[in-house]
Amino acid sequence: MKHVKVYLPIAVAALLLAGVSGCGGGATDVPTITVKPAEEAASPSTDVTPTNGAKTPGVVEPPPTTGGFGTFMGRVVIKGGGVESRPALVLKGKAALDPAVCAATADIPDQSLLVSADGGLANVFVFLKKAPKNGKDSLGTEAEVLLLDQQGCIFEPHAMVVRTGTPITVKNSDSKPHNVKTKPALGQPYDKSLNQNQTGELVYDRPEPVPVGVECNFHTWMRAYQLPLDHPYGVITKADGSFEIPNLPVGTHQFVIWHERSTRSLFSRFKVKIKSDGDVVKETIEVEAAKLTDVGGAKTKTIKLSLNR
Question: Which percentage of the chain shows pLDDT scores above 90?
């Protein structure tokens, strides 16, 4: 028996024809009619992806990857020999001015080079000159509180990083007058004299390319350094030379490594690459001892350091 697959209009005509033939008895081979389902006839493709790479209408595309953030951390250490202890700036009881307050109970140390027992260099500024694209502004939920005090004829702290527009409270805790003076390269200078327990407010209105020196006109050995930035990507190394800068966006960044004992930056373009979200780049930054001697003229073969305990 023959099987014929036809569509519905043809099947109806075939049924009528079969009825006529049956009445006349002229056909001995009666066809069986199979109607093809409509969904089979359509045969749609289950692959809806356009072959030309165009976006499929009605399909929600996932958001693009932001790239994420990583961390730059490590230590700055002294490399090279010739290390000796630095003498005090003012010996106990030997201050030429205000000896009842200045160095009255202890020597005034030289804080320009503070090194840990294993060679870590403190008070090194590690920073980006400009905020990176897609960076984070991590000032925190609470306002930053900064204090520059004068105790025992010493500025405390010796080094700090500050955000532009953030006030620094300057205070005199000594019983003798002091003076706080700055000469930034780009911003407004500051010059204020303070008696005991008096305070003032120092605000940097612009970021600076390098740290700004802070001086006291009355006691010439007093000195500190402050770096104003308009972004959070700057720190100073701790007593052991360690540092950490979080929230760096994925990409390549050029850091400045700066120390007060070098008239030039130790590394003006220290490259750090954050490869992916959560990446942690650890570096030991070795500084030749000779690079820390080019202050005030000729370099020397021996560098004297204050041991930072």
Answer: 60
| Rounded distance between C-alpha atoms, residue 231 and residue 165, angstroms | 11
Predicted TM-score (pTM) of the model is 0.74
Mean pLDDT score, 136-149: 73
Give the bridge partners for 191, in sequence order.
181
SS (H, E, C) the chain: CCEEEECHHHHHHHHHHHHHHHHHCCCCCCCEEEECCHHHHHCCCCCCCCCCCCCCCCCCCCCCCCCCEEEEEEEEEEECCCEEECCCCECCCCCCCCCCCCCCCCCECCCCCEECCCCEECCCEEEECCCCCCCCCCCCCCCCCEEEEEECCEEECCEEEEECCCCEEEEECCCCCEEEEECCCCCCCEEEEECCCCEEEECCCCCCCCCEEEECCCCCCCEEEEEEECCCCEEECCCCCEEEEEEEECEEEEEEEECCCCCCCCEEEEEEEECCCCCEEEEEEEEEHHHHCCCCCCCCCCEEEEECC
Domains plus CATH for the chain?
3-42 (no CATH), 69-307 (2.60.40.420)
